[in-house]
Amino acid sequence: MKLSECVVGKQYKIETIENIDDTLRNRLESMGIYQDNIFTLKHTSTMKNTFSISISGTHVALRRDEAELIIVSEV
Q1: Tens-digit pLDDT profile for residues 24-34
Q2: What is the reported pTM?
Q3: Coil, helix or strand for 66?
């Protein structure tokens, strides 16, 4: 499933990140978003345009287009 389909309050493991350029990959990795890392979805905006996750002790906000590229599985 995609990160954009996750349920608030549950934990997920990042399986892969699809079709991104090196610049975006480096930015995501610098925030702790990389394969096999575990996160909790904390909040979504009303229209699910932004997603707030807690990963490696940090809160990170992602746009929908970024969340659509992150493939996850429930822990």
Answers
A1: 999 999 999 99
A2: 0.92
A3: helix
Determine the distance from the C-alpha atom of residue 59 to the mean position of all C-alpha atoms in its chain, rounded to a whole number.
Answer: 11
Q: How far apart are CA 49 and CA 63, in angstroms?
A: 6
What DSSP letter does each residue of 18-63 carry, written as one string?
-S--HHHHHHHHHTT--TT-EEEEEEE-TTS-EEEEEETTEEEEEE
Between 50 and 46, the higher pLDDT residue:
50
Query: 50 near 63, Cβ under 8 Å?
Result: yes
Cα 49–Cα 4–Cα 14 angle in degrees, nearest 5:
135
Which tokens belong to 1? Answer: 């499933």
| CB within 8 Å of 55: residues ≥ 6 apart | 31, 32, 33, 37, 38, 39, 40
Quote the radius of gyration of the chain (alpha carbons, Å): 11
